Amino acid sequence: KKRIVSGVQPTGSIHLGNYLGAIRNWILLQNTYDTFFFIVDLHAITLPYDAQQLSKATRDTAALYLACGVDTSKASVFVQSHVRAHAELMWLLSSVTPVGWLNRMIQFKEKSRKAGDENVGVGLLTYPVLMASDILLYQSDFVPVGEDQKQHLELTRELAERVNHLFGGRKWKKLGGRGGSVFKVPEPLIPPVGARVMSLTDGLSKMSKSAPSDQSRINLLDPKDVIANKIKRCKTDSFPGMEFDNPERPECNNLLSIYQLISGKTKEEVAEECRDMNWGTFKSLLADALIDHLQPIQVRYEEIISDSAYLDGILAEGAMKAAGIADATLNNVYQAMGFLQR
Ligand code: ATP
Ligand code: MG
User: Fold this and answer.
1) pLDDT at 312
2) Which residues in the chain show pLDDT less than 70?
3) Which superfamily is assigned to 214-303 in CATH?
4) Which atom of ligand 1 is nearest to the CA of 9?
5) Residue 118: its pLDDT value, please?
6) What pLDDT score was predicted for residue 84?
7) Does the beta carbon of 48 lie inside 6 Å of ligand 1?
8) What is the Å distance from ligand 1's center to 86 Cα?
9) Bridge partner list, 4
10) How do the domains of the chain map onto residue ranges?
11) Three-point CA angle 130, 176, 92, nearest 5°
12) Which residues, at least 6 apart from 54, have a Cβ–Cβ distance to it below 8 Å?
């Protein structure tokens, strides 16, 4: 079976972008692939955060994975920090990652600009190296992510190739290893629609957990009236009717795409259905569709989060399975890099 890994940071409430760009696709993939879905708590500390909230956010995120349909009879769900190999491999990879590669990362530039110098730790810069570790430890074939992670995936691929070149093949064999490549070179899986869900208050920036305004996103756990209110108040324009793909109407395109995904209709059907609607009519249609779609997820979430023993059991089991694979890869890397075996 081909293997898939992916994760979300416990940096806030999971929103529609995380769901449509990543999590929803996991649900289909888990039927065909060997899947590992983790909560990337080590990544979540790369910007100032509240230590009092981290463990709660981690459990909430795990519960939401399950509520969205991640099925633990098929997929492994675990917490990144529970598998020590992630942080350990990161050190090894850091040492062979050119700083120039990291300086080029758009996410680093954007997040560091917003956070201000005082708040930018080295971890924000090396974030993609930790992400590469997350992926390469499992010899993953595919990584389902949103469009914003494409550049990090490209770096992961380059890093895998670099390690294979520097330490793999005959050199590794001489050290007593199996030879060949140390890491499999993974590929991103970016959905055709939903890969970049935009903010409700600005159709040109992506919906994000870390955006200061909660009005900019629909969280999966938002109550009905909050969803209705956010949609009612979200940014509109003064063009007549509703249409896809008009570059002057990014908000309109974004909301239609969200409706398309949530309703399960085709783009053509949505274009036809909404063409002559005004913003008011369309917004109430969208709000109702969102509320209907999210309600069962919210009900399941409440059930799961109230049974902490069950949730902890799932996470312990997931970490054990993950650690088995991750440790094997890590040992290979130590060997290929020439370390004295323990
Ligand atoms: P933060 O602002 O803390 O970075 P985030 O909203 O970007 O949070 P992440 O935890 O960084 O969420 O990303 C988790 C997954 O969700 C990744 O696969 C990412 O590509 C995807 N994702 C994030 N935002 C969007 C979006 N607006 N549209 C589609 N996919 C998204
Ligand atoms: Mg992000």
Assistant:
1) 97
2) none
3) Tyrosyl-Transfer RNA Synthetase (1.10.240.10)
4) 10
5) 87
6) 98
7) no
8) 20
9) 35, 142
10) 3-195+307-336, 214-303
11) 15
12) 10, 41, 44, 45
- Check pocket membership of 260 for ligand 1, CB cut-off 6 A: no
Q: Is the ipTM of this complex over 0.95?
A: yes
Domains 3-195+307-336 and 214-303 share a fold: no
Q: List active site positions.
A: 111, 206, 209
Quick one: pLDDT at residue 117? 83
What pLDDT does residue 22 have? 95
In whole angstroms, give the CA distance from residue 208 to residue 147.
Answer: 13
CA–centroid distance, 283 to ligand 2, in Å, is 27
Give residue 131's Cα distance to chain centre.
11
Is the Cβ–Cβ distance between 142 and 157 less than 8 Å?
A: no
Query: Per-residue DSSP letters for 243-296?
Result: -SS-TT-HHHHHHHHHHHHHHT--HHHHHHHHTT--HHHHHHHHHHHHHHHHHH
pLDDT digits (tens, 9 = 90+) for 148-164: 999 999 999 999 999 99
Q: What is 38-81 written as a DSSP string?
A: EE-TTGGGSS---HHHHHHHHHHHHHHHHHHT--TTTEEEEEGG
Instruction: DSSP for 284-340, please give it.
Output: HHHHHHHHHHHHHHHHHHHHHHT-HHHHHHHHHHHHHHHHHHHHHHHHHHHHHTTPP
Architecture, CATH, for domain 3-195+307-336: 3-Layer(aba) Sandwich (3.40)
- 151, 51, 95, 329: CA torsion to nearest 10: -80
Residue 265 has phi, psi (to 5 degrees) of: -85, 165
**Residue-level pLDDT at 116:** 86
In whole angstroms, give the CA distance from residue 213 to residue 207: 10
CA of 22 to the centre of ligand 1 (A): 8
What pLDDT, on a 0 to 100 scale, did the predictor assign at position 177? 96
Residue-level pLDDT at 247: 96
Locate the ligand 1 atom nearest the alpha carbon of residue 12 and give its number.
3
How much is the pLDDT for 277? 97
Residue 149 Cα: closest atom of ligand 1: 20
Per-residue exposure over 283-310, b if at least 16 CB sit within 10 Å of its own CB, e if not: bebbbebbbebbeebbebbeebbeeeee
